[in-house]
Structures are given as structure tokens and as C-alpha cells.
Design a protein that fits this description.
The longest helix has about 30 residues. The chain starts with a strand and ends with a helix. A four-stranded mixed beta sheet has the order 1-4-2-3. It contains 13 helices and four strands. A hairpin with a 4-residue loop joins β2 and β3. The chain is an alpha+beta fold. It is about 60% helix and about 5% strand.
């Protein structure tokens, strides 16, 4: 179903769905915006019909909203939020310009969803197959174990899917402890990140994770490893408060103690010199 629309308030942007869609590079966004200003929005924005939530086309929606460009919507029906998320993830995995960590994360999110309730998600996959004329990659109707079906459709083994599931959990934990900006910097490829470094960040205590998150969001480091090292070395710590000045009386007492200590050292040195001269 396609519908021309200009009222942007009629659609909803859900953070969970938007987080699955990689952001455009600055030059990519500028190029897309120039094209849309000239030619209009040629591709429909895909919407979960029952809820009015955008499930594909977030970048186009933002550009249309900012520039008062009319657009069309393609509305799909889903029996549940899980079904809509399933479609969104598989649709994203059908794109060719994803970074490796984005592929790993999306596969991991799907694996974790299917693992949580494989029988229900088999139904989800069957329902989603009806929502597209040409199914996104991995969208073929399942006929067996849901996670195994997904692994085979993406051309990877179950061990890879499990590792991806761990990465997805870790990156979601980063969003909780270090902040969504930190997760986004990693997911969008703004900083380099190995699975091991993401896991280390996910396992940090909340206070330390927030400090690493601030470093990542600042754009001053090139990798998660560098941010972890910076905070570990103390560069990410809050500056220490200067010591409060002593009361004048206490200061005089401390000065006297220091004078006595220096005098004792001088007397001891003088005595030693005399002993050496008479030896």
C-alpha cells in the first residue's frame, strides 16, 4: 500500500528500530539530500502499519522533514513487535554497503531473537515472507530450526551466529552503561572496535564505562582500545580538587616543624664532617 504524505507527525520514529539502521556518512547524506531536493523522494518510506512506526527509510524521512519534501509510504502489517523487528533486521542485512561490525551485530540481534523463542519466530518468518514481493536476504520461509535456518540463509555457521549474538549483547550493554552515543560511534564505524574491546567495555563498572563513553563520543580517539587505555591511565578521570589552604596558625606550626627537621639534618651533617676531619 502506497500513500502520498506530507504530514511528518503522522509517523513515529522508534529508537530501537532506528538504531538498527546505520547512519549515512556526511558526504553520502549531502549527496542524497541534493538528489531529493532536485528529484523528490523517489523511494517509499516503509512503515509498520498498525503502529505507524518507520521500519525503513529513516534517513529519507529526516531529509524530507527538514526540507518539506513530500514522500510516499509503504505500509506493512505485522502480528507483533518481534515480527516487525525481524523484518527490519533482515531487510538491513540485504544491503551491500554494511560495515563488518554492522553485519555481525544485525545477525547477532536476529540470532538472539530466534533463540529466545524459536517456534514463535518461525511463525514470524513465515508472516514476514508475505510482506515482500522479493524477500530480503534470509527472509525465505523457515522450515526447521529457526537459528539454523538463519545461519544457512546468511552463509555462515552456527558458531559464527553465536559469536555475533554475544557481540549484539555486548553492544547493547554498552548502550546501557556507556551511553547510546558510544554504541552509535562503534556501530556506525566512527571508531575502530574489535569484539574483544567491545566486550571489555561492556563488562566495565558503570562509572568507568560512562567515562569511556564520554571519550568515545568526543571524537578525540580513533578506537575503543585507545579510549579504554586513556581512562585506565587516568586521563579520563575527573580532575582532583586542590587541597584547601591551611589555617594561619596551623601553617605556622607546620613551618616550624619543617625548620626543626632541616636544622637537625644540618647539625648531623656538621657533626659528621668534624668526625671525618679528626680521624
Amino acid at each position: 500500500m502506497r500513500k502520498a504524505i506530507t504530514d511528518v507527525e503522522a509517523l513515529k520514529v522508534d529508537p530501537e528500530f532506528k538504531s538498527l539502521c546505520p547512519a549515512l556518512e556526511a558526504d553520502e547524506r549531502e549527496y542524497l539530500q541534493d538528489n531529493m531536493k532536485r528529484d523528490g523522494c523517489r523511494d517509499a518510506i516503509v512503515v509498520w502499519d498498525e503502529e505507524g512506526i518507520i521500519i525503513d527509510g529513516h534517513n529519507r524521512f529526516e531529509i524530507c522533514s527538514a526540507n518539506d519534501i513530500a514522500f510516499t509510504t509503504r505500509r506493512l502489517k505485522f502480528p507483533s513487535r518481534a515480527a516487525a523487528l525481524d523484518w527490519c533486521i533482515r531487510n538491513q542485512l540485504g544491503r551491500r554497503n554494511l560495515k563488518p561490525i554492522q553485519v555481525n551485530y544485525l545477525r547477532g540481534k536476529l540470532y538472539n531473537m530466534l533463540k529466545a523463542d524459536p517456534r514463535e519466530n518461525l511463525k514470524v518468518g513465515q508472516e514476514n515472507a508475505k510482506n515482500t514481493e522479493k524477500s530480503p536476504k534470509g527472509q525465505n520461509e523457515p522450515s526447521g530450526n529457526a537459528t539454523q535456518e538463519a545461519a544457512e540463509s546468511f552463509g555462515v555457521g552456527m558458531s559464527t551466529m553465536k559469536r555475533d549474538g554475544g557481540l549484539a549483547d555486548d553492544l547493547d550493554a554498552v548502550a546501557e552503561s556507556a551511553g547510546e552515543d558510544a554504541r552509535k560511534a562503534i556501530y556506525d564505524g566512527e571508531v575502530k572496535a574489535t569484539k574483544g574491546d567491545v566486550k571489555k567495555l561492556a563488562e566495565l563498572p558503570a562509572a568507568a564505562a560512562k567515562k569511556v563513553g564520554k571519550v568515545l563520543a568526543s571524537g578525540e580517539v580513533a578506537s575503543v582500545k585507545e579510549a579504554l587505555e586513556q581512562v585506565h591511565e587516568g586521563n579520563g578521570k575527573e580532575p582532583e580538587k586542590p587541597a584547601e589552604p591551611l589555617d594561619p596558625v596551623d601553617a605556622a606550626i607546620e613551618a616550624g616543624k619543617e625548620f626543626d627537621r632541616v636544622a637537625r639534618h644540618i647539625n648531623a651533617a656538621h657533626k659528621m664532617a668534624q668526625e671525618l676531619s679528626t680521624a
